[in-house]
Amino acid sequence: MCESFVNNIANLSLNTYESLGKTGKPTADEWTTLCSIVIEENNTFLVACLATGTKCVTGQWASFKGAVIDCHAECLCKRAFKRFLISHVQSGKSFDTAKFHLFISQLPCGVVDRYKGNIDKPCVGVRRKPGKGERCLKPSCVDKLCKWNILGLQGRRLLAFTKKPIRFETIIIGNCGQENEFDENK
């Protein structure tokens, strides 16, 4: 894959994020992961959806000891993409000739090599989420990305409208060699 292609997808995603203004973005002492799905059609590129990861304690959850609502950027981006698909499929749009590219600003959770210091006995299906010491039996983002790329991004209910699974042409990950997560101030 051409480095300029990768940089174009990354820059398109980052520029779209920057264009959204400051509301809801992390402050100078916070960080997040950015994820986007870019559609390529007839040599034209469009950011279909964009999401950042969230972590918060809110409402009824606050009464639970240390309960954290934690949604990773990849999952939120997929949800946004399904909304994008619904609105376009209802208007008769077809994506038969489109290619789909995923951009993630850092390695997704579940990449064992990055977190090998935190894993004493790695095994399939049991991953540690970033920054956590406890094992998590839930699928990591890497597991989910693999599943989505086999079964399709559209999900089971939308498959009747898309006629075939929507899979990634490319997956582009930024900051692979760095421990710093995406920070809008860098």
Report what the structure shows:
With 186 residues, this protein is α+β, with helices and mostly antiparallel strands. Helix content is 28%, strand content 19%. The chain has helices at residues 3-18, 73-90, 141-151, 155-162; strands at residues 34-41, 44-52, 54-56, 69-71, 99-104, 168-173. A 4-stranded mixed sheet has the order 2-1-5-6, sandwiched between helices. Strands 3-4 form a two-stranded antiparallel ribbon. Helix 2 packs parallel to helix 4 (155-162). It is globular, with a radius of gyration of 17 Å. Belongs to the ADAT1 family.
Q: What distinguishing features does this structure have?
A:
single chain; alpha+beta; 4-stranded mixed sheet; two-stranded antiparallel ribbon; 4 helices; disordered C terminus; EC 3.5.4.34; A_deamin; tRNA-specific adenosine-37 deaminase activity; RNA binding
| Number of separate helices | 4
Overall tally of structural domains: 1
Q: Sum up the overall morphology in one term.
A: globular
Strand content: 15-25%
Q: Mean pLDDT, as a whole number?
A: 77
Widest sheet: strand ordering: 2-1-5-6
Give the total of beta strands.
6
What's the alpha carbon Rg, rounded to whole Å? 17 Å
Termini, distance in Å? 26 Å
Kindly state the percentage of residues in helix: 25-40%
Assembly type = single chain
H/E order of the elements? HEEEEHEHHE
Strand count, sense and barrel status of the largest sheet are: 4 strands, mixed
Would you identify the regions where 5 or more consecutive residues have pLDDT less than 50?
A: 117-121, 178-186
Class based on secondary structure composition and strand pairing: alpha+beta
